[in-house]
């Protein structure tokens, strides 16, 4: 469907479309900088300039004076990077297409992108194990027991994160579970009397599964840069 054809009088609200795009990107782990830039470019393309203000579990669209126009919930409970990639590809296509934007077509394709399935849980668990073991080796783990401990902890942590996300648990609960599993792994490493570096690398599962740093904007100040934690893709 060509979104560069048609007009904007399709009965679809431009702010609703912008809010949907921002919420899908934010809730599915896309970087804050690219989310803000992509949605604000789309807003300019639609003739509805807004400021995108992401927060922990929501996204606000504000006008030039900082007054909120739309506030949508976007908790990153079950991050699906397939959705984020599909939405960004869609926004880039709209950005480069000539002519007016068909809002109805754009809205339909955003809804379609939101239904894309996530990667299979076994694949996610395998990726978690691979990443944690690689970090362990980089940090100097050579003891087979330490590497096995890291692999088991990362596998359990990856499975737990998927399970909690599917049940609607927020990012704080998921991060706590991953950190708790890593803590148990560290305690086991100490109990098994592994070497000092091996005890340290037992926390590698947490480094893979606990959210990292990203930049955002504090909604209470409407534009003051602040740091927050959020899921990365």
TrEMBL record:
<feature type="region of interest" description="Disordered">
    <location>
        <begin position="214"/>
        <end position="233"/>
    </location>
</feature>
<feature type="transmembrane region" description="Helical">
    <location>
        <begin position="120"/>
        <end position="139"/>
    </location>
</feature>
<dbReference type="Pfam" id="PF06738">
    <property type="entry name" value="ThrE"/>
</dbReference>
<keyword id="KW-1133">Transmembrane helix</keyword>
<feature type="transmembrane region" description="Helical">
    <location>
        <begin position="145"/>
        <end position="164"/>
    </location>
</feature>
<feature type="domain" description="Threonine/serine exporter-like N-terminal">
    <location>
        <begin position="17"/>
        <end position="214"/>
    </location>
</feature>
<dbReference type="GO" id="GO:0022857">
    <property type="term" value="F:transmembrane transporter activity"/>
</dbReference>
<keyword id="KW-0472">Membrane</keyword>
<feature type="compositionally biased region" description="Polar residues">
    <location>
        <begin position="214"/>
        <end position="224"/>
    </location>
</feature>
<feature type="transmembrane region" description="Helical">
    <location>
        <begin position="171"/>
        <end position="192"/>
    </location>
</feature>
<dbReference type="InterPro" id="IPR010619">
    <property type="entry name" value="ThrE-like_N"/>
</dbReference>
<comment type="similarity">
    <text>Belongs to the ThrE exporter (TC 2.A.79) family.</text>
</comment>
<protein>
    <recommendedName>
        <fullName>Threonine/serine exporter-like N-terminal domain-containing protein</fullName>
    </recommendedName>
</protein>
<keyword id="KW-0812">Transmembrane</keyword>
